[in-house]
Amino acid sequence: xxxxxxxxxxxxxxxxxxxxxxxxxxxxxxxVIISRDLVFISKENTIGSQTVQISTSLEALDRISPDTVxxxxxxxxxxxxxxxxxxxxDLDELYRVGRNxxxxxxxxxxxxxxxxxxxxxEFRASFSDGAFKSYAIAPIMSNGMLNGYVCVYEYDEVxxxxxxxxxRDLIQISCGxxxxxxxxxxxxxxTFTRRIxxxxxxxxxxxxxxxxxxIDVRGHDELAKLSAEFNSLTDRLQSTEEIRRRFVADAxxxxxxxxxxxxxxxxxxxxxxxxxxxxxxxxxxxxxxETERLGRTTAQLLDLTKLDNxxxxxxxxxxxxxxxxxxxxxxxxxADEKNVDIVCKLKEDCCILATEDELYQIIxxxxxxxxxxxxEGGEVTVEVAxxxxxxxxxxxxxxxxxxxxxxxxxxxxxxxxxKSRDREGGGSGLGLSIVKSTAExxxxxxxxxxxxxxxxxxxxxxxxxxxxxxxxx
Length: 473
Ligand code: ADP
Prior knowledge:
The chain has three domains: 3-165, Beta-Lactamase, CATH 3.30.450.20; 222-305, Orthogonal Bundle (Helix Hairpins); 312-472, Histidine kinase-like ATPase, C-terminal domain (Heat Shock Protein 90, 2-Layer Sandwich). It is built from ten helices and 13 strands. The chain has helices spanning 2-59, 66-75, 106-116, 157-207, 222-271, 277-308, 320-337, 356-372, 419-424, 431-441; strands at residues 83-88, 93-98, 122-128, 131-142, 145-156, 315-319, 341-346, 351-354, 379-386, 390-397, 445-450, 456-463, 471-472. The protein is rod-shaped, with a radius of gyration of 52 Å.
């Protein structure tokens, strides 16, 4: 993994440094080229026009000779040129001022002379060794005849020096900028890769099961956002993992208790030599109760697992009143056995989108609890009502009720208000959590309300279904 970081860092640096290199090359060449070209243009203007001025003045002469030429040249105010040479048409030198100083290139001069022989004014300039070298040539024409040539040469170190100075300054500035940029890019890429490494380390730790690992979020950029998102994801993972662990521990405890009881009861039968048949029957009946409890708990655990896995069910219109009626019919014998009166208040057309089996289970669990936790001669009311948007199913009782401090937890898995009493009564503490998960699966909400009379009222509210032929997965 670390090699991947290196390569990201290397790529990052390479890109950054290549960019800097390109910027430096442009910075060092472009301004120099532009300034040099500007000097060439200005030289062509000044030297070219001086050359033409000399040739025009000499064109006025009847005869071109060293004397006449020097007279004219003395009258002209020519300055700043390294050398001025006047040749006659046979290329004999008639006049010379200055010398063909440093950097003079014969080949350029003779090339220009060739062009001038065709009657053209010519100019050439070059920049080398820190100096501008300018050559200009102009033919001297009189009455349409080629009488001679004016050859001018200028060697300019001053402007050359300015260009060299500019180049040197630019190199110094760009070196400074590039050193700074390289240092900054090293710092930035180091920080960047370190932050990425932190995130990857965190992912690795969480993958290994260290769910409490959190990234230290700094700054307000995308990486900080990524770290914050990672932390909130890990928060959820941690709480899910805690719930899972607790569930597994509770579930195994719940299964262990009846199994231990079965083991104890069967050992008692096997190890007692003179056991009478009535005691054996009692023990076997206890074993049957425990296996029933085991069966109920495992069935409920399976239901919860299905709900947790969001197994898709085909939903259709379900009439809550009809389902409530079925539940009451099924529970009537148990209610009678406990001497609890069970009554219905059912409205028509209270349809919701769900599955009949799941709605049955919700109402059954609530009504069964209402009977189970009721008192001798008590009453259970199963009510189905509706308003414009909702169908409400309420199961109320006149039973023992639930203490206010237990109310926030009663929908938690395996939560029992009175642990010993409920276990004896066969309760697993899973019924209400199944009610809640099933109701939520179909867009419903569950609420537990303590009644002033001392009993409980459980209300489940679902969105009403107005068009009853709907079938949805
Ligand atoms: P159980 O299988 O133990 O009944 P539930 O999840 O259905 O599990 O209920 C959780 C706990 O809430 C029960 O153990 C019981 O103490 C309490 N409880 C549920 N319904 C009622 C009720 N109608 N009246 C009083 N207590 C209730």
